[in-house]
Specification:
- The protein has about 170 residues and is mainly alpha-helical.
- Among the domains are: about 15-75, no CATH class; about 85-140, no CATH class.
- The chain contains 8 helices and no strands.
């Protein structure tokens, strides 16, 4: 019996590693797999190449595992300033995002980073940058889309005539 192989061309190392970046906790599984490969005799260079990491990263995994044991696989809390948006602010923002910005006397018809910054400043007196607001929109599951412009006065006949007039005539 032959071993099963992945034949789908879309499944390669890069998209899988990209998914590991998106899924919370996936890198813990990658660390476990890496340490299992080290235990089975793989070199740190080969493991680093397999997971598209730097060799020093894999070496630090090994050192931490030797010092701390199995607990070293889990992520440690990282230092840094806590975010400005707590659960109360998030709930207010989610409620607002379910409605039109015009209902809050904002001059736009679609939510984006700038509008969210303006809303949070007016409603909760919290200052954010537009990039931070876009990050929060993304975390809440909203995506940025460009508006689709339809010109009502354009007819199919007129569009065809315009395109034909643009074509080179030899």
């Amino acid at each position: 019996m032959n071993a099963l192989k992945i034949t789908n061309k879309n499944i390669t190392r890069e998209p899988l590693l990209t998914m590991a970046d998106k899924i919370e906790g996936a890198w813990i599984g990658v660390r476990i797999a890496g340490l299992l490969l080290i235990l089975s005799g793989w070199k740190s260079t080969a493991v680093a190449k397999l997971f598209n990491l730097s060799r020093p990263s894999v070496i630090s995994w090994i050192k931490r595992a030797n010092e701390e044991g199995v607990i070293s696989i889990e992520d440690k809390p990282r230092s840094g300033r806590p975010g400005k948006l707590d659960e109360k602010v998030i709930s207010v923002l989610e409620e607002a995002l379910s409605k039109n910005p015009e209902e809050y006397n904002l001059s736009r018809f679609r939510w984006d980073g700038v509008v969210v910054v303006e809303f949070i400043k007016k409603k909760l007196n919290i200052s954010l940058k537009p990039r931070q607001a876009r990050n929060w929109l993304k975390k809440l599951g909203y995506v940025r889309k460009r508006p689709i412009h339809n010109y009502i006065q354009a007819s199919d006949k007129g569009v065809k005539e315009f395109r034909q007039s643009l074509k080179k005539k030899f």
